Please model this.
Amino acid sequence: GDSVTQMEGPVTLSEEAFLTINCTYTATGYPSLFWYVQYPGEGLQLLLKATKADDKGSNKGFEATYRKETTSFHLEKGSVQVSDSAVYFCAPMDSSYKLIFGSGTRLLVRP
Amino acid sequence: DARVTQTPRHKVTEMGQEVTMRCQPILGHNTVFWYRQTMMQGLELLAYFRNRAPLDDSGMPKDRFSAEMPDATLATLKIQPSEPRDSAVYFCASGFSGVRNEQFFGPGTRLTVL
Model:
């Protein structure tokens, strides 16, 4: 079945550092791909998405590019802030519109 | 600003009691999902409805859990009888099945079973 692998956390960075969170997936066909973010004590929020190969999703300074050839959707941000501290989930959507969630990657940004 | 709402936000109960969690999806959405989140298991899909019809509840313990959509504005998740291992945060999400296929999550119900 469809699955997703995210890099293990926690990822600890200093403010203004560059962020990469790796995500690879296995799926049939060409699924839509999503990144969700969960701040402490809250539900998941959609961060960005891409629906076809080479699409780049972007939001709040975060970007991710749909790489069909490597089945990857890595999340990047050029300069993280303390307020970006959260858990990030990569999720492809299968053919029945279900999201396949990874284990999540916790990001901690220190001042 | 349309949002998914869930009630109650917190629930503490004793083992053996019935628990009912409610979700109001965003108006016009045709899919509803119930998830459970724990530290050990992460996010698990429990049930999935499309146009109020249950499509997938394979992730749900059938002997004690039940999920329903009595109408388009209400989804319920019931646990009877509850057990300590059911302690978790339960999220409801809604969305469209189609081109605009994001899922929008509610704030969750934090359940503690003593």
